[in-house]
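Entry for the shared binder. Reason: the reviewer on the internal report wants the predicted structure included alongside the sequence.
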Amino acid sequence: MLPEIERVAVALFRHQSQHCAVYREYLQSLGWDSPRCAAVSNEADLKTVPFLPVEAFKTREVQTGSYDPVHVFTSSGTTGQTPSRHLVAHLDAYRTQTRQCFEWKYGPVEDYAWLFLLPGYLERTGSSLVDMANYFMTCSPHPENGFFLNDYLSLLQSLTALEKRGQKTVVLGVTFALLDWAEWMPFPLQLRNTLLMETGGMKGRRSEPTRAQVHHQLKEAFGVPEIHSEYGMTELFSQAYAQRDGLYSPPPSLLVWPRDPEDPFAFGPYRRTAALNVIDLANVHSCAFLALQDLGRVYEDGVFEVVGRFDAAEIRGCSLLAG
């Protein structure tokens, strides 16, 4: 961890351990009283603190301080699931953060045309991904920008026109929809100026193939050397991007650490399958220290990959937050 990031993360932990009511309650239930939290002073200390189970966003209003939210982001989920709710204090702050995360990896948002294939997300309200997409399109001057839902022909026509002009383009689609589009494609493409980016997985629409199978099929259909990936969620203001093989490079605002899958309070091994803890320094007004349900591998340089999710519905420890 860079010294400046370490300083910010420590200060944010001390602040949120006192002023985020849900996180404070969780810490106190585990014996982390105010003096113990105030003693956290470096990265090594942060690796010992309990991270808030992300499921808290399903049952509680996770706020640091008190404010009237200007917007509420909600998660998708299958019928009967309780969605997560992220109370937004400043919508412009979220949008600026999404731009910075993308540009850290790819350069100015306005340099690209943006084509979105996001069924499921568009068919409900409260999606942070749709808000990001709308914002990116307002930053970009290209008339072809748009959402295409299931209109594969219009999407193909717009993409073909952009390719002919040599215009840099991002096609960002939920994984199952990109596979559906690839199977619909009347002929293979040979894209030269387009980043094909998947996000969101299968959402229960298709069986779960391996990442290698998905990327192979998409490469064959669209004639691209690599499939890019976006990693984000309702509970995070930051996003990470992978330029190949599902290896995500988190931006400076996002730290990903391994957690022992058998012990939610123990730091896990690098390079081996572990649960994921994240510190999202952009979650200033909610909670930055979250224990996710995702399983993955984290490397010493901060790069990570996601390999699955817990089979259990809830991470152990979340029962402390019910109510």
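Summary line for the report: The chain has ten helices and 14 strands.
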